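Figure S4 source data
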Amino acid sequence: MFGHEGTKNFNFTRYIVLLWKSFLCAHTILPFSMKKENLKNIRIKDIAIMAGVSEGTIDRVLHNRGEVSEKTRLKVEHVLNEIEYSPNLLARSLASKKKFLFTCIIPEHKPNDYWQSVEDGFNLAARDFSQYNVQLKKYYYDQYDANSFTILSEKIINDQPDALIIAPIFKEETIKLIQLPGFKHIPFSFIDSMLEELDFLTYYGQDSFQSGYVAARLMTQSIPQNAEVLIIRNKRKGAVSNQTFVRKKGFIQYLIDFKLSNIKLIDIELHENDDDANYKVLQKVFQKYDNIQGAITFNSKVYRLAGYFEELHYNHIQLIGYDLLEENIGYLKKGVVSFLLAQRPEKQAYFTIRDVCMRLVMKQEVKKNNYMPVDIIIKENIEEYRQFTE
């Protein structure tokens, strides 16, 4: 074994490690049930037996919390290294003790809508983190009717979820939900937009104010001075969208900061499901104002506005909207939409579930505010952007 021909491929360090592991097995530190082929089923209880400490001590070492002597910590870490323990094994071990229900509250939607991307992110996270024994239950509300959000509260509280993930389109209704006695001790996270005054666990989404600020810069650098700009939103029952409100606030703040009082803003509301009425509204507006050079909608359905402009031959308008819906991309490529501001909704959803798992299951600290980048998309970079994110 140690002759000249054998030493060329002999790894002395590996040989010593193998001898050491054989020694451990011979001296019962690694029980029969914990042999290599069974390590995938390892439990914290088994690690505690191997290290000669309590399960609580193992938990404190793994999560780096509480007081553990240096000698004990080294003993535990030695066992973990010997059995090549991984975080995934820990996750399965912890999850086996409790099942978790996370309730997701988002707007109802059609396939290929913005909120479908959010739901896709939830579904991917549910599969990837199934080892935590986490179940997702989704509830849907009408984003154009605040009352539809309110009536969900009784159904949700009956489930007694361990956490809530909320898209808070309706600000006041969301606050009322969170403050109900039955929800008082349930941690919650926001997605897409947030309510800063509430003590949420995590937020993933754009800085809504900043995205409106960026949109104003794009708009004002694309139109002449003294131009008129349409601010377009959809009619809703009961409340204005929280996201729309904050984005518009950022848009206006940019005009204030750069003293662009010569830009005239014209607010109009369009119907969600009445194209004929919307055509008439736009025709009247263009008859009344003769210097409309730009238009912006602070939601994902800029394609509807683009379709109206194309049909009415308003080809000179600088049009800005949000999100990479296929319809939006189509009008961007045709030049009807000038800019799209994207925010990676599927990643927002995925990271939210991941962080709630880390906090509730693994007992680890997570970052509270997680702002997604404001991606500025034009027809010249759309294909490269999509290929990169895929």
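Figure S5 source data
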Amino acid sequence: MRRILAGLVLCTAVASAAVAAEPSPELIATGKTLVEAGDCAGCHTADPTKPFAGGKRIETPFGAIYAPNLTPDRDTGIGAWTDADFTRAVRYGTAPDGSLYYPAFPYPYFTRMTKDDTLAIRAYLGTLAPVVSRNKPPELRWPFGYRGLMRAWNWLFFKPGLFEPDQSKSVAWNRGGYLVMGPGHCGACHTPKNYFGADKSAQALTGSELGGWYAPRLDGAARAGLQSWSEQDIAEYLQTGRNAKSHAGGPMAEVIIASTSKLSDADVHAIAVYLKSLPPARRESIVTPPDEAEMKAGQAVYAKLCIACHEADGSGAPRIYPPLPANALLQSINPSSTLRIILDGAHTVTTPRAPNTGEMPGYAKQLSDEEIAAVTNYIRNSWGNAGPLVTPAQVAKARGQGP
């Protein structure tokens, strides 16, 4: 009888532990928010019918890697991982077998997340449908395929540690800083990299080229940064993909659709508060304006192809056709994004808050390298703008990076 009672007690205890181990709806909701803030699906989804199942090819300056399976499949995903395995992978870049991840997986940012938030992410991923999808090996140039090199990389460039709140700042500022510098990993695109692919931390969020596009400055630079943007401008851009000053395109458009447009008003406002507070991290370049002949050539192209939508004074129709005067992206030191839009065209981001669409045709076939350089120089240096000179050689290079 005692054995039977002991067995019943043990079964009850095990059952209670199992119930207690079930994540709460609140924890899962927190994890979903953080997964969206990090745009995890953007990298870990190759097939839209199999979200988070990995397999997406990600190009880096050192070759290509393939994002792994994050579904709870026990054989090919993370279903057999312990909480400790998951935390070590996310915050320290170390796989359960002890191998090291490449920093294309942004663990140098995720290390700033709390353990509770890391486990909330795991709780949410655990609610996904398991998908059998085996991880593909990286395709990196020699010698970067040797994962052992990551020990040296981590020793040189990886500084684990939580985000440190600033007690002199507001709750919103600290929440925004946590999202930007932690799960949102904005610097992965917007911070320049050194020869080894590590952030130039002294130039944080001052812009960087990425896959033929240029992720612009997010600091308070006057021409190419956010000095002229209000907190509301930043929030509107993140929620809708457009505002009275600019429209999102390229990789940022994808981030807005899959990530920032899904965040709460409070979190988007917090990000805006944090970004708006950033002073210029480096000086803007001194610009020598194009000569008169170049400006006239560009004006002729503009009058023929652009003026109908963007108007003679470049004012456009805010939130439909982006205005060109004081356009921060347009005046970036790197013209890659502007050239991509002129060559390939653009489609206005469509979100629940801004469902109306707009479209700009591409001119890759219609205009020569010289003509595209001229019109780019014209719009980058008219109406008070000031952008470094663009050459036909830069246009030719951009053509080669197109779709």
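DSSP finds 17 helices and seven strands in the chain. The radius of gyration is 24 Å.
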